[in-house]
Amino acid sequence: MAIAVMLGLAVPSAGAQDATRGKAVYEACIVCHELDPKSTGQGPTLIGVIGRRSGALDDFRYSRAIVRANIVWDESTLDAYLADPQSYIVGMRMPFGGIPDKAERADLIAYLKTLR
Ligand code: HEC
């Protein structure tokens, strides 16, 4: 009974950003974006990505497209980029199709904010 009540109470907040759920979404990113600030795997590290300019890390060889885009990664730019990377920055070379679900992107961005 108590559990049912608690679940009922949790429903209204289901739309809120949830970094714990976002961590699970990040499983789709981790093969290329390892959680190590020094590691440059296939993709640049996303530790500290919030507030960073696109293509800003010296030790990663970015495409010209992402450097030229010169955008600041925040909630709204990340949301647009992760929805459809290739359309948002034409010519960048992240081989990832995007996350169509807005709630999943919000959770993921909440998680990215914890990567400092
Ligand atoms: C198959 C490998 C791969 C996967 C999977 C992948 N990425 Fe990337 N990502 C890259 C590469 C490569 C770049 C650099 C693109 C360029 O230089 O044009 C990049 C760039 C980025 C950038 C820009 C970083 C910067 O320093 O400007 C962000 C943000 C990003 N990825 C987020 C994500 C997220 C979040 C996911 C998971 C939903 C993800 N990526 C999945 C390979 C990947």
What is the straight-line distance between the termini?
40 Å
The helix fraction, in percent, is 25-40%
How much of the residues is beta strand, in percent? under 5%
- Rg, alpha carbons: 16 Å
CATH class: Mainly Alpha
The third-level CATH topology is Cytochrome Bc1 Complex, Chain D, domain 2
How many β strands by DSSP?
0
Bound molecules: heme C
Given as residue ranges, the uncertain stretches (5+ residues, pLDDT < 50) are 7-13
CATH architecture: Orthogonal Bundle
Major pleated sheet: none
> How many domains would you count in the coordinates?
1
CATH superfamily: Cytochrome c-like domain
Contiguous helical run count? 6
Globular, elongated, flat, extended or rod-shaped: what is the shape?
Answer: globular
The overall pLDDT, averaged over residues, is 89
SS content category: mainly alpha
* H and E string: HHHHHH
Protein name: Cytochrome c domain-containing protein
GO molecular function: electron transfer activity; heme binding; metal ion binding
Keywords: Electron transport, Heme, Iron, Metal-binding, Transport
Domain Cytochrome c: 17-116
Tell me about this structure:
With 116 residues, the protein is mainly alpha-helical. The chain has a single domain (16-112), classed as Orthogonal Bundle (Cytochrome Bc1 Complex, Chain D, domain 2), CATH 1.10.760. Helices cover 40% and strands 0% of the residues. The structure holds heme C. Heme C binds at residues 28-29, 31-33, 42-44, 46, 49, 52, 54-57, 62-63, 65-66, 73, 82, 92-96, 99, 108. Heme C is lined by residues 28-29, 31-33, 42-44, 46, 49, 52, 54-57, 62-63, 65-66, 73, 82, 92-96, 99, 108. InterPro entries: Cyt_c-like_dom (IPR009056), Cyt_c-like_dom_sf (IPR036909), Cyt_c_1A/1B (IPR002327). It holds the Pfam family Cytochrom_C. Residues 17-116 form the Cytochrome c domain.
